[in-house]
Design goal:
The chain is of the alpha/beta class. It folds into two domains: 2-169, UDP N-Acetylglucosamine Acyltransferase, domain 1 (3 Solenoid); 171-232, no CATH class. It contains six helices and 15 strands. It has helices spanning 2-15, 22-28, 30-46, 50-64, 172-185, 199-227; strands at residues 67-68, 73-74, 79-80, 87-88, 93-94, 99-100, 105-107, 119-120, 125-126, 131-133, 137-138, 143-144, 149-150, 159-161, 166-169. Strands 3-6-9-12-14-15 form a six-stranded mixed β-sheet. A hairpin with a 4-residue loop joins strand 14 and strand 15. Helix 3 (30-46) packs antiparallel against helix 4. The longest helix is centred in the C-terminal third of the chain and has 29 residues, at 199-227. The chain is elongated. The termini are far apart.
C-alpha cells in the first residue's frame, strides 16, 4: 500500500512543476485524496457493499470536488490536476499514466445498462473542461484539448480539439519528418507546440511539407539527368541557423542582390 502511495506522489512531481515536497502533495492535492478514497470505495463496491461504497464516494466528492463512481476502474499513476468539477462515470476504464485536468467529464450518452462510459488507454491526457462521452476508446498516448467534446474513438498518439472533436494530429511520423527537414535547413522551430496547434505552427509545417516535396522533385530530376550522362555536383544545403534577420546585416556578404543571374 505504501509503495503504491509513493508511486502516486512521485507521478505528481513528474506532471506538476508547482509540487515542492511529498508532504505538500500528500496534504494539499485533492486529486490524490480523491484517488485514495476511490480505491477504498472501489474495494467496497467489488465486495458487494454498494451503498457504503457510494457513501464513501459521496464524501470524497464533498471534500475534493471530484466525483468518481466507485464502479470505475482506474490504473496506476493516475493524476488529476486541480480536479474541481471532474466527473468519472460508473463504467469508465482508465489505464496507467493518465492525466485529467479540472472540469473533465467521462460521461455516458444513454440510460441503458452496461458499458456506457469511455475507456482511456495508457498515457492519455485530457485537457481542462473536456467532455469525453459514451462507450468510446481514447487510445494510448492520445490527447484531448481543453473544452473539447469527444464522442468517437480516438486513434493512438492523436490530438483531438474542438466541438465536436476533430483530429488535428494522427502520426508521430509526420512530426518527425518536419523535425528532420527543419534540422537539415538549420531552422529552429522554437515557437511550435505539439499539444495545441496554432496557425503559425500549421503554416510552418505546411512550408516544411512544401520544401520536402520540392526536395524530392529535385532529387528525381538529378537522378534522371545522371542517367543521361550529366554530372551533378554534390552540394549540401547551407546552414541558416546563424543568419541574423533582425539587424539588417547581410547574412551572406558574398551575395549581391543586384548581380543575380536571371
Amino acid at each position: 500500500m505504501f509503495s503504491r502511495l509513493r508511486e502516486d506522489i512521485s507521478c505528481v512531481f513528474d506532471r506538476d512543476p508547482a509540487a515542492r515536497t511529498a508532504w505538500e502533495v500528500f496534504t494539499c492535492y485533492p486529486g490524490l485524496h480523491a484517488l485514495l478514497m476511490h480505491r477504498f470505495a472501489h474495494w467496497l463496491w467489488n465486495s458487494g457493499l454498494k451503498w457504503l461504497a457510494r457513501l464513501v464516494s459521496h464524501l470524497s466528492r464533498w471534500f475534493t470536488g471530484i466525483e468518481i463512481h466507485p464502479g470505475a476502474t482506474i490504473g496506476r499513476r493516475f493524476f488529476i490536476d486541480h480536479g474541481m468539477g471532474v466527473v468519472i462515470g460508473e463504467t469508465a476504464e482508465i489505464g496507467d499514466d493518465v492525466t485529467l485536468y479540472h472540469g473533465v467529464t467521462l460521461g455516458g450518452t444513454s440510460w441503458d445498462k452496461g458499458k456506457r462510459h469511455p475507456t482511456l488507454k495508457d498515457g492519455v491526457v485530457i485537457g481542462a473542461g473536456a467532455q469525453v462521452l459514451g462507450p468510446i476508446v481514447v487510445n494510448k498516448g492520445a490527447r484531448v484539448g481543453s473544452n473539447s467534446v469527444v464522442n468517437k474513438d480516438v486513434p493512438p498518439e492523436a490530438t483531438v480539439v474542438g466541438i465536436p472533436g476533430r483530429i488535428v494530429k494522427t502520426e508521430v511520423v509526420v512530426a518527425e519528418r518536419h523535425q528532420k527537414m527543419a534540422a537539415r535547413m538549420g531552422f529552429d522551430a522554437y515557437g511550435l507546440t505539439k499539444d495545441a496547434p496554432d496557425p503559425v505552427s500549421n503554416a510552418i509545417h505546411s512550408m516544411l511539407d512544401h520544401i520536402q516535396a520540392l526536395d524530392e522533385r529535385v532529387d528525381t530530376m538529378c537522378k534522371a539527368m545522371q542517367s543521361m550522362g550529366q554530372q551533378i555536383p554534390d552540394a549540401d544545403l547551407p546552414d541558416l541557423s546563424g543568419c541574423d534577420l533582425d539587424d539588417g546585416s547581410d547574412a551572406n556578404p558574398g551575395w549581391d542582390p543586384n548581380k543575380v543571374d536571371r
